[in-house]
Every structure is written in C-alpha cells, then in structure tokens.
Amino acid sequence: MEQLETFRTEVRQWLQDNCPESQRSPALPEEQYWGGRSGSFAGEDARLWFERMHARGWTAPEWPEAYGGGGLNPQQARVLKEEMKRINARTPLYSLGIWMLGPALLEYGNEEQKLRHLKAITGGEIRWCQGYSEPGSGSDLASLQTRAEDMGDHYLVNGSKIWTTNADKSDWIFCLVRTDPGAKKQEGISFLLIDMATEGVSVTPIELISGESEFCQTFFDNVRVPKENLVGELNKGWSIAKALLVHERKLMSEMGSESPRLQVPPTAAARDYLDFVDGKIADAQLRSDLVDYEMQMQAIGLTHFRCFEEKAAGVQSAAPLVMKYAGTEAEKIKSELLLAIMGTRGLGWEGESFSAAELDTLRLWAMSKAMTIAGGTSEVQLNVIAKNVLQLPQG
Amino acid sequence: MALVLNEEQRLLQDTAREFLQQRAPVEALRKLRDSRDATGYDPSLWREMCELGWASIILPEAYGGLEFGFAGLGLVVEESGRTLSASPLFATGVLGASAILLAGNETQKETLLPQLAVGELTLALALEEHHHHRPTHVETRLAAEADGYTLNGEKCFVLDGHSADQLLVVARSSGEPDSSNGLTLVLVPRDSAGVRCTRTVMADSRNAANLQFDQVRVPAEAVLGRVGEAGPLLEQVLDRGRIAMAAEMLGLAKESFARTVAYLKEREQFGALIGTFQALQHRAAQIQVELELCQSVVLQALSTVDEQPQQLPLMASLAKAKLNELAKRVTNEAVQMHGGIGVTDELEIGFFLKRARVAMQILGDTGYHKDRYARLCGY
Ligand SMILES: Cc1cc2nc3c(=O)[nH]c(=O)nc-3n(C[C@H](O)[C@H](O)[C@H](O)COP(=O)(O)OP(=O)(O)OC[C@H]3O[C@@H](n4cnc5c(N)ncnc54)[C@H](O)[C@@H]3O)c2cc1C
Asked: Which of A54, A348, B239, B289 has its CA 20 to 30 A from that of A228?
C-alpha cells in the first residue's frame, strides 16, 4: 500500500514535468495519434508526449519491458491511469495492437512473434486492424468463410472481411480464417497475421451514419501469407479469437466512463442548457431521466472497480460478462439524454451556427448506436449471460 | 367514424403514397443532402404536389381549396413521413395555411390563400427563441410607429426559414417575455430590409434557419389578427402542427419498422433467419402493439381538428408525446436489429433515425407534452 502511494507521488510528479500543457485535454479525432506507417502527429507536443511515454514503456504499461512495455503490475497501472485522468492527459498512442492483439499474442504467440510484433506496437510503428466479421458471418462469427489453404511454404488466403474498422489506415490485420472446411465450424478456424501491403489485399471504405468513414470491406484475392504468421496451433484459432473478444468487450464496456472528444457530461450539459428552479432542473422528465442515468453510471463504475479487485484477488464472478452490455447500453442512453437536454442545439450536423462541442455530441450520438453492435451485439451478450452465467437450457 | 378511413380518404392516401414513392423517395433526400442543395427541396416537385391539391387540402373552396379537412391532410403528411420527402408541406401546408385561415382577415385570406394553394407562396412560422420549445417565450419586439411597426429580435429553428417567401413572425407587442398575452403575428417578406437569415444544417438534412430582425419595417396590413391577441390562435395553429408532426412520425415509424421486419425475414445467422429468434420476435411484436395504439391516437387527433376543437390541446399533446416515444423506439430498434449494416450511411435506416430526432423536438419534446397533458387534466 505504502509502495503504491510512493509510486503515485512519483507518477504525479513525472506527469507534471513531462506531459505538455496542450496534451491535457480530450483529443479530437484528428488529434489522436494512432501510429503506423502512415501515422502522423497532430503537432510537436503530441510527438514529444508520445516519445516520453514510450521511453518509459507507458504506451503499454502492463506489458513486459522486453517488448517495449512498462512492466507495471495491475495496481500500478491503475494508479498511472488515475493520475493521467486527474490531469486529463491524452492517451499517447491509440492502438488496437495494444488493446486487443497484444494481450492475445502475449498469451498465445511464440517468442519470435512477440519480439517482432509487440515492440512494433508499443513503438507505434505498426497499426493493426481486426479481420473477424464477414458479410455472412457477424453474430455467428464461427461460420466465417475466408479461406487459408496450406500451399506448403505459405498459406493462400481468399475471401473478404467487413466492418473492418480503420482498415484503410492500418498496416497489418489479424484475421480469423478457415483452415479446415471439413471440421465442425469452431474447429476449423485459425488465427493469422497478414501484412496489408501484400499483393492481393484491398480495402473499400464504408461511410457510417455519423458521417465518418471508419470502417471498410477488406478483400483477399490469392494473398500469400508466410507460415510464421500463424498464431497458436493450426485449427485452434477459435480459443484465441474468444480470448481476444474478452479484451475487446472489456475495452468497449469502459468507453462510456470517460467523456470522449468534446462531448460534455450530461450533468454539465444540464447546467448549460436547462433551467433550474430552486436548485432543481425545472423539466421534470429530463431531471428524472438524468438521475436514472447518473445512478446507472455510478453502479457501472462500482462494478468496474469490483471486477478489478476480484481479478487482483483471484475471485471469479459473473460481473465481467455483463459489463459490455451494461456499458454500451448506458452509452446510448447518455447520448439520447444529451440530445434531449440540448434540444435543437444538439441537432446540428455542420456549420457555424453550432459550437464544436454541439456538433461532436450529435456525431457521437450516431456512433453510440454502433457500440451495441460492434464487438458482439447486445443480443449476443445477453445470450452469453443466459448460457454461461445462468446456464439456461439451450434450444 | 373518425377511426376508419372513408373511400375518398383512402383514395387520397393511395395517390399520395404512389406519388411520393415514385417522385420523392428517401433517395431524393439523399441527393439533396449530398449536393448541398441551397433550397433543400425540389420546387418543381412542390408545384406538382400543389397541383395534386396538397397545399390546399384544408382550405375552403372559396379560396381555391379542396376543403377536405385536416384528416385528409394528415394522411398525406403521414405518407411523406414514410418517404422522408422534403417539401414545404409542413411549414406552408400545415402551419402557414392554418395561421392565415385562423388569424387572417378576409382581405388577407383572399389574397394569400389562393397563392398558397397553387404553390406561388411559401411560408415559415418564426416562433422559437430557445433551444427547447417554449411558445410563449417571445422577446422579439413589435413596436408601434406613426405609420406601422418595427420588428427587432432573433428566432431559431425556423422550419423552411431559409427558403420561404414570407415569414409568419410571432412577436411581442406588450407583456413580460414569458406571458401568453401581448403576442402578435405579423407577415414579413423574407427579403425585407433588416432580415438576416442563416441556414442551419440539421441532422435530418431538412430545412431550418436562424433569423435576425433588425429594425424591420412592418406595415399595419401585415398584422394577422389583432395586435397583442395572437396567443390563443397561435396555440391552435401549434396544436394542428403537433398533430400533423405526429402523423409524419407515424409514417416514419411504420416505414422503418416495415423495413426492419422485412430484414428479420431475410437475414440469416446461425443457420436460421434472425426473425426466428424469440428475443427479436417479442421486441418486434411489442412495437406492433404500440403502432396499433398510436395509429388510433393519430386518427382521433386528426379528426379532432375538424370535429371537436375543444379537445384539441389534449389530443395534440397525447399524439405528440406518444409518437415521439414511438419514433424514438422504432428507429433505435431498426438500427439495432440490422446489425452492422444498420449504422452505415448506405442503408436508409439512418435517415429515419435522424429525422425522428429532429421531429421529436419540433413543437415540443416528450417531456413538454406529458407535462402539458397532465396540466390540462388537472394533475
Ligand atoms: C462500428 C463498428 C465497428 C466494427 N469493427 C469491426 C472490426 O474492426 N472488425 C470486425 O471484424 N468486425 C467489426 N465490426 C462488426 C461487428 O462485430 C458485427 O457487426 C457484429 O458482430 C454483428 O454482426 P452483423 O453486423 O453481421 O449482424 P447480424 O449478426 O446479422 O445481426 C443482426 C441482428 O440480429 C441479432 N441476432 C443475431 N443472432 C441472434 C441470436 N442468436 N439471438 C438474438 N438476436 C440475434 C443481432 O443482435 C442483430 O440485432 C464492427 C461493427 C461496428 C458496428
């Protein structure tokens, strides 16, 4: 405990000395640094901040130092996160590599793969995207059809992936591919890493309802993939896929606890956009909706904390399995609530009649609809709870 | 028999449906959006709609109208909700026509209504001054001069405010900023000196504007009804608007729901149509329940305008509150049940989602109308 407090003091001081003033506010999409071959910094401060954090291994605080991580234990990592949040320090490197692929490689990758890929991730050199879903395989992911044929010294990949977030800006893709078409659907899948610069890989961006274009369809046309890019055993990719989904869902469940981009929290919005009478919000409906949301968020926050403490104590519970559903559904409620609070000011699409924060609130509202679909839909989450937690009979 | 359509009404609805689906489908709105069309609707199409009589459905024959009643207008508006057609139908055909009809003197009606009926005059009601609907919160001032009036103030969220020929401005002649006494309705050509207009691009890709009035000269003949006494008439106009908007949302909800149900019958996962999953079946069935209830509410509200004006405020708030909730629920479910494709711009469901949110704010959100309903009922 005392050690942790010493660590906190040290971290606080270090952040104070090293986090540039301009990096102490929420980052707009164009201000986020995602690394990769074509990645660029929004400014000199962003570069400086990234380099300083990277030098300490704090782009991936909990990974071993040998792979460019910080070697922190979970308690220390939490302290770092809290201290960063205290001063609103930006995430120095946004990365699917850090959030999703890395943890899976640490568990299932061989030493060579770890050394090669993890360092390139923590250093922001390579940007990754996720090639799971296909046009015919979304909720039923295990039915995927993209094939990898064993050609002796390499795999030959054919097929297409869809809803691949940021595929057009990524360097590598981690893919689920079918390697045994004859086996039961979960047993013929392998986990393959593919360099998107390889001949035969192409991407087409797809526009979202938020007006942004962040996902793509990714095509594989006779793509030759070296055998060393197979992670884990052949036809055993499904376990890796599932382990990775756990990280993805945890990540998504936590997105609501921070106000992303310019969006203001509902309580602050209420102060700016609603009338108060005797210290109370005059609009009874909105007051009641707001308190429902705030109570739900407090309960979610406490449950996140419980999950963390249970994990540290080695205790198992059902809590982690409900968090993706709870978190993303709450995020949708928040976005609807913000629109209701802001009235017509929250409905602007573009133009100078609206503030940047108002416009961002609407775009994020549109994106919030996607969060209960991406990473496994809310319905799939409920099915998992019914099956794995409640152990209800399956039809 | 207010709750069952008669033969004539059915015919009107069928014609409207056919016309809108052919000439002004959601695809047309997408084109207007993507080309950043300055008018925001297709004026030649509006002429055609006027030829079909849509601008004059509620007008007496004496003024070139069809005299078909508000219920008839509601059916056309409902159809325009299915196709999300952008046109002056709401701002001119519902609000504008009602205001002149209810508040105008004989001369005003004789000159304005026939023009309106043939599409030569479009109108916009400049009411709101706040980001939440507050019909009596009016600070825009109308000051009497020796030879007429001057108008000063600002308005926001004026539907069709950037394109209408004339603005129906709600201004204050006397009284405190939130009083319903002292309001006056004046007609101001949009190109008058001192009128500044800024179009606002909204989520639904439809038309709204912020307006500023700076020492705008208003002749005495431009006042609709009596100076300082527009309050009660205005409420009637707004209630008609609320009911028409509820009808639009009914169409919007029906269409986005129909498309979703079709998708449940088409998309396969886990070797089965997703419509076989009871988790989705029950949610869809619950929406059907609400749709049936809302259908009755809208039909009754529409015929209330023609037949039981004393019930108008209550029915307007019932309809707007219920349909706000339905439109929100249906559009959210439509996106969710489509999965990944539901959040793409390519699928038209997103247009319904966005229009629903704007429609929910027009002339009162859910909370506003629940509160008003409760007050009208005395609790
Ligand atoms: C913003 C966004 C980003 C994404 N990024 C990526 C990415 O980077 N990489 C990637 O691989 N994928 C990505 N996805 C895809 C995502 O994982 C899928 O969209 C998701 O798994 C749902 O699949 P689907 O879209 O095919 O919907 P479907 O599976 O077709 O679902 C349609 C509807 O049916 C419901 N349904 C399906 N099965 C059942 C059932 N058994 N019981 C009850 N209801 C059911 C669903 O819940 C949904 O409501 C992304 C999606 C979004 C929205």
From this structure: A54
